[in-house]
Amino acid sequence: MANDSAVFFGQFVRSPGTTGAVAPSSRRLARAIASPVPERGEPVIVELGPGTGAFTAEIQHRLGGRGHHLAVEINAKLAELLSGRHPGAEIVVDDAAELPRILAERGLERADAVISGLPWAAFPPAVQDRLLSAITGVLAPEGAFTTFAYVHARTLPPALRFRRLLASTFEEVVPSRTVWGNLPPAFVYHARRPRA
């Protein structure tokens, strides 16, 4: 939506280090990143950095009222917007690095999937490490972690470091094909089986 783009861009201008993008993700990227949401059962899905809700809407669609969808957004304005749009998701204003505590407070033991919209290439090494440690700390052994990266930024040092960090943290990391129908074009990392 045009209004979402305006809100997103405004939040980017105010805080580019935490917003990390100038426009919301596309529906095509949302479909690619939400692919590990299980088709059956009552899964626990954790979404990080939902922004204006492009991934949130796709996760809600795939869940169809099942399970528990917990979305962690550090930006209170974006979280408020999401809460009104997606009553089926539990929106929490908090730091994603606090995932173990956030889940424990809700009596949730593990996440079946963690879907991230966080701007990894914008984070310094210590923040990347802290966030990925929090994610692997809550991810079920058979769970999946997905996140995305912009094609134009993949050779930047923080992006290269994050790719190496993923490879050392998970046994399996598979990048998707480029999603050209996104502004800017992006691809998804599908990661499984956290290393001990």
Specify the helix fraction band.
25-40%
Supply the helix-strand structural class: alpha/beta
Q: Percent of residues in beta strands?
A: 15-25%
> Alpha-carbon distance between the termini?
42 Å
| Strands side by side in the biggest sheet | 3-2-1-4-5-7-6
Number of helices: 8
List low-confidence stretches: 16-20
Radius of gyration: 15 Å
Kindly state the number of beta strands.
7
Biggest pleated-sheet summary: 7 strands, mixed
The average pLDDT is 91
Estimate the global geometry from the Cα principal axes: globular
In sequence order, what are the helices and strands, one letter per element?
A: HHHEHEHEHEHEHEE
Overview of this protein structure:
Helix content is 40%, strand content 24%. By secondary structure, it is of the alpha/beta class. The chain has a 7-stranded mixed sheet with strand order 3-2-1-4-5-7-6, sandwiched between helices. α7 links the parallel β4 and β5. The N and C termini lie far apart (42 Å). About 3% of the residues have low confidence.
Provide a brief overview of the structure.
The chain has helices at residues 2-14, 16-19, 27-33, 54-63, 76-85, 99-105, 125-138, 157-169; strands at residues 44-48, 68-73, 90-93, 111-116, 139-150, 170-175, 186-194. The chain has 196 residues and is an alpha/beta fold.
SSE arrangement:
Layout lengths: L1 H13 L1 H4 L7 H7 L10 E5 L5 H10 L4 E6 L2 H10 L4 E4 L5 H7 L5 E6 L8 H14 E12 L6 H13 E6 L10 E9 L2
Parallel strand pairs: 1-2, 1-4, 2-3, 4-5
Antiparallel strand pairs: 5-7, 6-7
